[in-house]
Amino acid sequence: MANWDKVSGEGNVEDRRTARPGMVIGGVGSLILVLAFMFLGGKDPLLDSVLNGLAQNSGTQTTETRTLTPSEAAYKTFASKVLASNNGIWPGIFQQQTNGGQYSAPKLVLFRQATNAACGYESSAVGPNYCAADQTVYLDETFFDEIYKQFGGSTGDVAQAYVISHEVGHHIQNLLGTLESGASSVSLELQADCYAGIWAKYAADAGIITQAEMQEAISAASSVGDDHIQKEQTGTVRPDSFTHGSSAQRVGALKTGFSKGTMQACSVL
Ligand SMILES: [Zn+2]
Fold first, then answer.
1. Among 88-97, 122-131, 179-188, 245-254, whose mean pLDDT is lowest?
2. What is the CA(39)–ligand 1 centre distance, in A?
3. CA of 29 to the centre of ligand 1 (A)
4. In the predicted structure, residue 51 carries a pLDDT above the cut 90
5. Cα(245)–Cα(185) distance, integer angstroms
């Protein structure tokens, strides 16, 4: 368990897990649109995607049904600390390493099953997702149990922090305009892994995570490589259909960010 108490401040986490999913505006039609977008765009609906703002929906129609359980409350604190640790490092990195870029903190929404976002309908089946239109990471953390049951890899807190920091990486791409640059899906995903590596370096330097715990993140990155997932799912590997990069590429990107610690090292992957 990483030393999250060392992180000062809190991230902007909205918890919708206690709310019953209400009538989702756009409903099934919107879902089909999102899934069609992801398939046509080559996005893997199982594992994190980046949506720029199709099917503009507004508001969340939910009803509170209960209070948080102690473990849910602990997870909210954990997610908040991961965001806060990212918010603690990126403003300084932006100041030093980007040409006048301004970092602004992203939001994170915890949900179950389905919820509305500015990008349309967020579904647990999609996995962790960053919506550029509302600068928000959407996460149903039960995803971690499911995905690693299927594909192996660590489910430890640092593994999960890596995934959340990868989504913050997409937020950074959004702030810098990289999401709109026409870069390939694999390039964007590997760069987000590299940015997560930068986060891990700063977290290690600050004594929040240990070198040993970094192995959790490496294990997670390896297990969600496209070649590993394709082999598990279909028995064959088709590099031309990769969306996130191979296990070796993802681990390599994460390690590059971790060892170099600069955005420049993440610029060409
Ligand atoms: Zn991603």
1. 122-131
2. 15
3. 24
4. no
5. 9
How many domains does the structure of the chain reveal?
A: 1
Task: Tell me the CA–centroid distance for residue 190 and ligand 1, in Å.
Answer: 8
Strand 120-123 and strand 114-117: the pairing is: antiparallel
Which pLDDT does position 150 carry in this prediction? 84
**164 alpha carbon – ligand 1 mean position (Å):** 10
CA of residue 247 to ligand 1 center, whole Å: 14
Calculate how far, in angstroms, residue 59's C-alpha sits from the geometric centre of ligand 1: 25
Q: How far is the CA of 64 from the centre of ligand 1 (A)?
A: 30
Lowest mean pLDDT across 89-98, 150-159, 186-195, 204-213:
150-159
What pLDDT does 237 receive? Answer: 93
Confidence category of residue 63, pLDDT binned at 50, 70, 90: low
Cα 50 to averaged position of ligand 1 atoms, centre (Å): 6
Ligand 1 centroid to 67 CA: how many Å?
Answer: 31
Ligand 1 mean position to 66 CA, how many Å?
32
Taking the centre of ligand 1 as the mean of its atom positions, its distance from the CA of residue 35, in whole angstroms, is: 16
Range of the domain at 229: 4-266
pLDDT of residue 122: 86
pTM metric for this prediction: 0.88
pLDDT of 42 over the 50 cut: no
